């Protein structure tokens, strides 16, 4: 499923009015956890501090949303907010030009901008200068902003920089021993705050937190490290993954059960025909040999006599040609889809690959065991008259039924074994995958590729990709889900680098890093 189709199906599947985890959503409400105290601190420092204020945090920590909340929470009559972006305009000229345009200043220089700030102060208006993506500012831009923050005795703007932590080192190098700026570091959400944040986002789109289980919320929190931007991405991926899994379970339930039923019915038909043929073979008689050892002979109901096929004492067929009509097991097995061998390639009893026992000859007296018996003349040539009268007269009922009847009756039961072997094989594969995840360090990361409700699909994907692809079984909404992962990495950064090197076809599914500990937790819950 492409990203576009996944986006369209995502909203319809969950009956959402919009994507709750998009960067910009309609009717956005500021989430106060871990951010409301910072917002109040910024307002306080803007009023009483003369320092440039710096808000730092990693990508996805909510710096831009905090800046939006700061602008929205100011009194528009007493504060004029000027928002500047350092993306693509990180030098002093680019930053001052944006500030001058917003303040309606013709000359984009620090002194001209400060004069306009003083004029606005005389009318009762303060100026907030807020810079997004401040880590992209070069040294000249930082020096110009520090000069604006220092201001003049008559007035000054309140300068706020929102950027990643690398910004601090650049400011320290410029400031030297002077205290020119104050840093506020954003903190990640706790797990309960993550749950409340998800609930607020989902409610805004017309859904509820019940879309996620407690285990999923824990997984989202751990995978995102509690940063709101990462929470948005991981939660959205989890919902799309659950949607695909549920749709696969609806569309493909028959594929996993219809085919085995056909195989079982076909094998049962072969067994029934084999048993019936064994009981309905008409020509059973006993002919004396020259040594006195009895030889049992059965004729196939084909209308004409066929040469005897003899087995040596070792139980292996002698290399004699099969003349006449073929045995009917072969075509029946072919109709059954060729299911006549076990997983290891050994023919299953009752299948077309098992040679039919037509005649069994006891070794002549005096011949040691293991030495092929030499066929005698009366056995080698067919009976002179195919009529049943002599056979009935010479053959005693008890000796005929005694050796022949038990053999076909004992063989049908093992014919059901092929249906059991795949299940045993799958169980071994799952156990091996679980043990691998259990053996990995909990602090390591794996890359989650996709989830599917069909274990056969997971096995096929892993076999096709090879390498470090593996899968494990978890339970989602009471149904099994087979999750495919890639590799094992000592850090999230290493896992992110590995994602970039994956084939384009795999990257299209938006793989994401997760901790081994979260996988082990799901495996423990599944057991």
Write the layout of secondary structure elements.
Elements: H1 3-14, H2 36-48, E1 52-56, H3 63-72, E2 79-85, H4 92-103, H5 110-122, E3 126-132, H6 139-150, E4 158-163, H7 166-175, E5 181-185, H8 191-204, H9 214-224, H10 228-251, H11 255-280, E6 283-288, E7 294-299, H12 329-335, E8 360-361, H13 377-380, H14 388-394, H15 397-404, H16 406-410, H17 420-439, E9 445-452, H18 455-465, E10 469-476, E11 479-489, H19 492-500, H20 504-507, E12 512-515, H21 516-526
Parallel strand pairs: 1-4, 1-5, 2-3, 3-4
Antiparallel strand pairs: 6-7, 7-8, 9-11, 9-12, 10-11
Helix pairs in contact: 4-5, 4-6, 5-6, 9-10, 11-12
Give a brief description.
By secondary structure, the chain is an alpha/beta fold. The chain has helices spanning 3-14, 36-48, 63-72, 92-103, 110-122, 139-150, 166-175, 191-204, 214-224, 228-251, 255-280, 329-335, 377-380, 388-394, 397-404, 406-410, 420-439, 455-465, 492-500, 504-507, 516-526, and strands spanning 52-56, 79-85, 126-132, 158-163, 181-185, 283-288, 294-299, 360-361, 445-452, 469-476, 479-489, 512-515.
